[in-house]
Write a sequence for this structure.
């Protein structure tokens, strides 16, 4: 009886292991490339936070174009917020703050906020790619980090 029970346990355990193989422990992350509507959906001279919760980006509409700002502080990565009355991005963790361009105005953040690549699909919708970013003045104001409209 003990032998049959051991053999049965071994067989059941083997099948369970094989069955587990078909359900791998994979972490599914949001795609880095996504659409955020059309240029006319954004009001000129505003910072739009409608994609903040889902994609962690702000869309900034200027008279000559749009850019996408990553909502991660460049100090230790906390989520920043936009304070329209002060015209600043602020980090709640250690007090860094940034202007609308993403440049550091104060606090421990070592570099400007990162902008994500932004382009326009053939159907006219805006596409953001957070896998490609820049925080360097001179580079961030050009394609692909600025969508001229
Ligand atoms: Fe933003 Fe430290 S993480 S100031």
């Amino acid at each position: 009886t003990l032998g049959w029970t051991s053999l049965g346990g071994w067989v059941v355990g083997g099948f369970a292991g094989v069955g587990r193989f078909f359900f791998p422990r994979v972490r599914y992350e949001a795609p880095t490339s996504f659409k955020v509507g059309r240029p006319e959906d954004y009001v000129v001279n505003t910072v739009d936070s409608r994609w903040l919760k889902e994609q962690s980006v702000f869309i900034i509409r200027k008279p000559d174009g749009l850019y996408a700002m990553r909502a991660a502080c460049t100090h230790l990565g906390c989520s920043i917020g936009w304070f329209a009355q002060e015209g600043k991005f602020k980090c709640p963790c250690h007090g860094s703050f940034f202007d609308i361009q993403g440049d550091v105005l104060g606090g421990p953040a070592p570099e400007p906020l990162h902008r994500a690549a932004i382009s326009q699909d053939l159907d006219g919708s805006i596409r953001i790619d957070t896998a490609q970013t820049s925080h360097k003045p001179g580079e961030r104001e050009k394609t692909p980090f600025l969508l001229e409209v």
Summary: The helical segments are 2-21, 52-55. The longest strand covers residues 126-134.
